[in-house]
Amino acid sequence: MNLKQFIIGRIKGVGYAFKGAFALILSEPSIQVQAIIGIIMTIAGFVFNITRLEWMIQCMCIGGIMSLEGLNTAIEGIADFIHPEFHEKIGRIKDIAAGAVFITAITASIVGLIIYIPYIVELFS
């Protein structure tokens, strides 16, 4: 493989990734909710003028939840494709994937509280 083919392949890969991200955001209500929360938290970051470190941590939390939500959607899609009817083991797989998103969302919420509570307390003191 020459350099030109390599670069063209990477450009196509980025195109597929954008296509997948837009499909996910446009079609999945759960990630739409997460995206709205991410936008609200980004606005809050500007309003409260959070530090660079806080921005980095907040961005990692938002990106982590959005990414994991996408993986959860993919797992559910594969599971439904493989076994369209209800099956106890498929249900367990889907529950575990959803549980992973839930754990990440709870963790991100705790991080958000750690970042924003001091700013909110300062605002009212």
UniProtKB/TrEMBL annotation:
Binding residues for a divalent metal cation: E28, E76
Amino-acid positions noted as binding substrate in the UniProt annotation, renumbered to this chain: E69
Cofactor: Mg(2+)
A Pfam family recorded for this sequence: DAGK_prokar
This protein's UniProt keywords: ATP-binding, Cell membrane, Kinase, Lipid biosynthesis, Lipid metabolism, Magnesium, Membrane, Metal-binding, Nucleotide-binding, Phospholipid biosynthesis, Phospholipid metabolism, Transferase, Transmembrane, Transmembrane helix
Residues annotated to bind ATP: Y16, E28, E76, E85, F86, H87, K94, D95
Active site: E69
EC number: 2.7.1.107
The record's free-text note on cofactor binding: Mn(2+), Zn(2+), Cd(2+) and Co(2+) support activity to lesser extents.
Positions of transmembrane segments: 31-50, 96-121
Superkingdom of this protein's organism: Bacteria
Protein name from the UniProt record: Diacylglycerol kinase
Species the sequence originates in: Nonlabens tegetincola
